[in-house]
Amino acid sequence: MRATVGDQLVQHGRVVGQHDQITEVVEVMGSEGTPPYRVRFPDGHEAVMSPGPDCQIRHHEEPQRHG
């Protein structure tokens, strides 16, 4: 998994009815784009995350998929 500042980190819901959690990567703390990442949540707070298998990186140049 590799990210750059400005990408979105999408953590998929683990149970039926739970929505995806989308955060913005504000700092890449690993080497060459690898985790951990400092992310900003929609409410403004920040946290350091090392994404697991339920996460994906949505690069800022990729179009968002709806559906």
Automatic annotation (TrEMBL):
Q: Which domain of life is it from?
A: Bacteria
Output compositional bias ranges, type Basic and acidic residues. 56-67
| Annotated segments matching region Disordered | 44-67
Pfam families, per the entry: DUF1918
Q: Which InterPro entries match?
A: DUF1918
The DUF1918 domain extends over: 1-57
UniProt cross-references to Gene3D superfamilies, sorted A to Z: Domain of unknown function DUF1918 (2.30.30.440)
Entry protein name: DUF1918 domain-containing protein
Give the organism, scientific name: Streptomyces similanensis
